[in-house]
Every structure is written in C-alpha cells, then in structure tokens.
Design brief:
- The protein has 443 residues and is mainly beta.
- It has helices spanning 13-16, 192-196, 280-284, 389-392; strands at 65-71, 76-82, 88-95, 104-109, 115-120, 125-130, 135-140, 146-151, 157-162, 167-174, 179-187, 203-209, 215-220, 227-232, 237-242, 253-255, 261-268, 286-293, 298-304, 310-315, 322-326, 331-336, 341-346, 363-368, 374-379, 398-403, 409-413, 424-431.
- The protein has one domain (13-431): 7 Propeller (Methylamine Dehydrogenase, Chain H), CATH 2.130.10.10.
- The strands form seven sheets. Strands 3-2-1-28 form a four-stranded antiparallel β-sheet, with no helix packed on it.
- It starts with 12 loop residues before the first helix and ends in a 12-residue tail after the last strand.
Length: 443
C-alpha cells in the first residue's frame, strides 16, 4: 500500500508574516465599537479588529491560519484571518473573473499549502494560485463545467472533474518551475470499465484519494445520474465502477484519515410536485452517506444524514469526528468514524431555518480550522448559481463559524451579505504556522 501524505501544516514563516491589507468584512468602523461592548451576536457579520493596539495593550498575536471563501456569485475569493478578539478580518481578495474564472466553485491545496487550485464551472477553467502572494501562476482551460480540481498526494498532478465534458482531466504539475500541462483524460462515456458497469449517464463531480492511492470519483450531478468510479493512478485507468443502483453517490468524497475506508454522500432535493404515494423518494428527497471499504472493495455501511440533500462533510483535525450537512434542510449529523454511527446532530447550520427550503439557509461545503476549534460552513445566496434552486437557495451568503466542542454557531462572516448576487460555495483553510493533526485530504 502506498504511503499517503499527512498534511501537517508545515509552512514557512514568510507566509505568516504577510502584511494584512486594511479593511474589514463590512462597512462599519471598528473604532466606533467601545472596548466594553457586549459579545457580538453570532448571527451578525464579523467586523475587523483595530490594527494598532494602544501602548498599554499586548501586541496582537500572529494568526495561525487563513480562510479562502469562494463567492461564486461575484467571482471573488475572500481571504480572512482570525483576530485576537475571536473575530475574523478580511486581509485580501482575489478577482477570479478578471482572468476568465467565472463562478469559482471549489478550492484545493497542495500538500504544503503553497499553491491553491480553483475550479471555475462557467469559466471552464482551473486557476492555480501561489498562496503566499496570491499570484496567478496558471490559467488552464480544463473544459466546460470544471467542478473540482485537486492535487494528487505527491503534488505531481492536478485532476479535474469536468461535468460538461464528462471527463476526468489529468494535468502534469511542475511546481518547482510553476508549469502545468494537460497530459491525459478519462472519458466516462467511452471508458470500457464504466460502460461495462452499465453506467450510461452522469459526469464526474468530486474526488479524493484513498489510503491505497486510488481516487474515488462521484458521478452526477443529479441523484438519478449518481455512480462511483475508482481510478488507479499507476496507469491512470479506471479500476472499478459502480452504477447508481448499487452506489448512488453524487457529491462528497473524503477518506478516513488512517483506516482503509472512504466516505461519500448521496443527496436528492425533495420535489414539491411529486406525489408521495406514487413517488415517495422524489417527494421526500434523499440524505445518505456511504462508507466504502477500500481494502475489500465493497460498501461497508449506508446511513442516513437525518435530513434532505446530503452534501458536504469534513473531519475534525483529530480524526475523531466527521461532520456531515444537508443542504435543503440546513441541518446535519456528526459521525464517530470509529463506529460510523451518528453521535450528535446540528439543527441549523445557517441562522435562518424554515419548513420551506427557499426561505431557509442552505449550507454547502465545510472545512475545519487546524487547531480543531472551529468548523467553517459556506452558506448559499438568494440567487444560487449551482444546485437545485429548491434546495440551494439561501438567505445569508457567506460562511458560518461553528465551535466544534459546543456545536454552537459563534459567528457569521458575510463580506458581501447585502448583495443578492453573493453565493458562497467552496472554502479552504490554509495554515500559516506548524500544526499537527489531520487537516485536509489526502492526509
């Protein structure tokens, strides 16, 4: 079995010393807030802290990480860092639209977090940024509907799940020289293993890497097009494929940090026009998670996520919890990855909760802070650019900050919350100092 990369936040001190840009997450002047002000309402957007402490105040500590939040509705990646007072201040932003990166959908990093890949669905391209100075080093036309771009565990390749082209694209990555070249692709309509499995519809959606080095790709985007494809990277070929009748997974993918098992989500929004008696599944929707045993190549567990339209999920850095969310019902569960049983529930990721999904917040993607204190959860906007509008329409575009220990929402970061076009989707947390623990897959 190949050793996989354990990401331990080994980042140079120069990254930690990048000067923060002036500005904050909203238009209010932080100087107007008295020193003895009460604690912030967790559902109010966060404000920036004062940059210059008084002489008798201790110097501000250096932040240990930063959050890259992708607002696909405005083609902007907002970068925030934690402050000493428990808030989050905006330190930079990236305009992906200026280079053709319309609808930046997902963010992924190299194992050392020195580069970020941003897949842009409408732009049909993948953007590669040097994270320390936010410099664009590659603008790759990877195809219509480029949905997720992820670095391989050894950082030698970028693999892109391209919905519109129905392909998995391989890009050779020479990080030392910052050169990138598309070298191969897998056409899911023509691949013999996929065709022999009886898979006739569905496009690559997301992927991650198992302990044995293979990548597992969900197909979709609809639950009715769901399937699972496993790629062997020794020769970049499809090793196994499972049709939707067996493994109807169409969204999230994440490996267990140490064990030979892999987690996937299956989500279907409810159809308000479906007859519950004639089409019970369509009327109720679907929220399930699957656990795939990569050693025995079989599904080991199928469980409910306790809501509708299961979507994003993430491990805590200690590997002891897996948080799973439901987009339509704005709720989720927490799994014990030792037993794969539900040990807790989250009633509402976003502050607006309603029986009508279009009047409720819609969470999408999660990522944990390296110290394990917070879970960051993106929230969709009122005019979602992806997903079924019935499930993906939100109220408070931005991202919620959850205290992992208490399970409580403690902050709501909204850089452009009053803009009806704002629509947060992807998110990625980049370390600025050394930390031990399981951070982002592949570990």
């Amino acid at each position: 079995m190949n050793d996989t990369t354990r990401r331990r936040f080994l980042v140079g001190t120069t990254a930690a010393g990048v000067a923060a840009l002036a500005g904050c997450a909203d238009d209010e002047d932080p100087d107007e807030t008295p020193a003895d002000a009460p604690e912030d309402d967790p559902d109010e957007p966060t404000e920036a802290a004062d940059d210059a402490p008084a002489d008798d105040e201790p110097a501000e500590s250096e932040p240990t990480y930063e959050i890259w939040g992708a607002d696909q509705g405005t083609n902007t990646i907002y970068i925030h860092r934690p402050t000493d007072d428990g808030g989050f201040e905006q330190v930079d932003e990236i305009d992906t639209g200026a280079v053709g990166g319309e609808v930046p959908h997902m963010v992924d990093y190299t194992s050392d977090y020195e580069y970020a890949a941003v897949a842009c669905t409408v732009g049909g391209r993948t953007l590669i940024y040097r994270t320390e100075d936010r410099e664009l080093v590659a603008n790759l036309e990877t195809g219509a509907g480029s949905h997720f771009a992820g670095f391989s565990p050894d950082d030698e390749y970028v693999h892109v799940d391209v919905i519109g082209e129905e392909k998995i694209v391989r890009i050779d990555a020479d990080l030392e020289n910052e050169t990138f070249e598309q070298v191969a692709e897998i056409d899911v309509r023509e691949d013999e293993t996929i065709v022999d499995a009886g898979i006739e519809t569905g496009s690559p959606i997301c992927h991650q890497y198992a302990q044995d080095g293979r990548s597992l790709h969900t197909l979709g985007p609809s639950y009715h097009d769901a399937a699972l494809v496993i790629v062997d990277h020794d020769d970049f070929s499809v090793d196994r494929a499972y049709p939707g009748e067996e493994v109807p997974t169409n969204c999230g993918t994440v490996s267990h940090p140490t064990d030979e098992k892999f987690y996937l989500t299956a989500g279907l929004p409810s159809d308000p026009d479906a007859d519950p008696e004639e089409e019970p599944e369509a009327a109720a929707g679907v929220g399930d998670f699957y656990v795939y045993d990569t050693a025995d190549d079989e599904v080991a567990t199928v469980g409910s996520t306790g809501g509708v339209d299961a979507h994003g999920f993430w491990f805590t850095p200690d590997g002891e919890e897996l948080w799973v969310l439901n987009r339509e019902t704005n709720d989720g569960v927490i799994l014990d990855p030792g037993t794969d049983e539900v040990v807790d529930e989250i009633d509402a990721f976003g502050p607006e909760q309603h029986d009508d999904p279009t009047e409720s917040d819609a969470p999408d993607i999660m990522w944990a802070s390296p110290d394990g204190e917070y879970m960051f959860v993106t929230l969709r906007g009122p005019n979602p650019l992806s997903g079924d509008p019935h499930a993906a329409t939100g109220i408070n575009p931005g991202y919620a900050v959850f205290d992992v220990e208490s399970r409580e929402r403690v902050d709501l970061v909204q850089p452009d919350g009053d803009n009806p076009d704002s629509d947060f989707h992807g998110i990625g947390v980049r370390p600025l100092t050394d930390h031990d623990g399981f951070t982002s897959p592949p570990y």
